[in-house]
Structure to design on (326 residues):
């Protein structure tokens, strides 16, 4: 078991934190909303470790934090709404959902296999220093164990996650404590998916000034901290292939993705984790589903994955992908 160091914000602390991120470790850092539990967004293993540390029963998509607006639009495709909102509210407590750029290096697990990614440019001095120093996107959910309240102080993070992460950067209490406003700005009309630090009135005003509109139709499926319903998430990621769980013997034409004692079988011969490791399997899950889909598999089988550790989240995601489509 780890025991996190808790260091006050300083140049030394930022250096150490960036090194830990580069090595695939986890660092909790302050933002103006809440403390985030950060890992390298491009490293699937690091992102899997975030889910493991939080004990999330499902892979909710994570926000990738970057230092500048330009860096955000190198990862996600700019739209008119996104540009107007970014110019008005970044850096700050706002997250934009955008389509990934074709060469976007963010791990599929970071966006829970969805085609769209969540990006935020935070305003907090410590967060900015860390992001600039690290130089790449940092995936970070709020730094609390799943289902518990969000942390607004380093002590909350130490109490909840001190045994699961490497370093906590302490810069006192967060000024807001309310998470960022999450806005889907990937298409012509923008939609608020989670209310947060930037108000609906300011967002609507900014869009109107740019001759754009805020569509409110998604509000019925949002709640303050679990904005996108499981059903809605499932419909975002639907592999073209039919998905069958708990397969131990491949049928003809099936691309079987192995795990542990059940080896992969088919054109690609994929295995989530030959060693039966849940964290490795989580890091590979969405990449392998995408790869099998891209190879034109009609049926994707997945070997049984035990419900222990991240296995619960893996099976939750597989059940949704296997569910009948409407
Ligand atoms: O203020 C904040 O937003 C904090 C700080 C650390 O940045 N982070 C935070 O992360 O609250 P988290 O994981 O607790 O919430 C992220 C929200 C979730 O509601 C998730 O559903 C949504 O963003 N989200 C992320 N990626 C998404 C995507 N691709 N599509 C739709 N929603 C997404
Ligand atoms: Mg949260």
């Amino acid at each position: 078991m780890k025991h996190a160091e808790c260091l006050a914000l300083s140049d030394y602390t930022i250096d150490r934190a960036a090194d830990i991120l580069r090595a695939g470790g986890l660092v909790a850092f302050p933002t103006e909303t809440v403390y985030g539990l950060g890992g390298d967004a491009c490293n699937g293993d690091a992102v899997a470790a975030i889910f493991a540390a939080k004990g999330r029963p499902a892979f909710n998509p994570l926000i990738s934090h970057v230092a500048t607006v330009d860096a955000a639009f190198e990862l996600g495709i700019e739209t008119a709404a996104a540009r107007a909102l970014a110019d008005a509210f970044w850096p700050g407590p706002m997250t934009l959902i955008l389509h990934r750029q074709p060469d976007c290096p963010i791990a599929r697990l970071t966006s829970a296999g969805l085609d769209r990614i969540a990006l935020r440019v935070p305003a907090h001095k410590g967060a900015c220093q860390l992001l600039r120093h690290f130089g790449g996107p940092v995936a970070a959910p709020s730094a609390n164990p799943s289902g518990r309240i969000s942390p607004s102080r380093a002590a909350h993070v130490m109490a909840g996650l001190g045994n699961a992460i490497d370093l906590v950067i302490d810069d006192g209490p967060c000024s807001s404590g309310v998470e960022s406003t999450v806005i889907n700005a990937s298409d012509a009309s923008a939609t608020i998916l989670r209310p947060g630090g930037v108000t609906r009135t300011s967002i609507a005003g900014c869009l109107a000034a740019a001759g754009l509109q805020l569509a409110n139709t998604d509000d019925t499926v949002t709640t303050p901290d679990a904005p996108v319903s499981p059903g809605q998430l499932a419909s975002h990621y639907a592999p073209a292939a039919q998905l069958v769980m708990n397969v131990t013997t491949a049928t003809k034409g099936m691309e079987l993705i192995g795990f542990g004692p059940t080896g992969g079988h088919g054109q690609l011969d994929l295995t989530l984790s030959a060693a039966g490791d849940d964290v490795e399997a989580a890091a590979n899950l969405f990449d392998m589903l995408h790869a099998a889909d891209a190879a034109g598999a009609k049926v994707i089988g997945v070997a049984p994955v035990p419900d222990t550790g991240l296995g619960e989240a893996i099976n939750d995601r597989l059940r949704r992908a296997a569910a009948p489509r409407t």
User: Anything to note?
Assistant: Residues 242-322 form one domain. The first strand starts at residue 5 and ends at 8. The pocket of magnesium ion (ligand 2) is lined by residues 141-142, 150, 225 (CB under 6 Å). The chain has a mean pLDDT of 90.
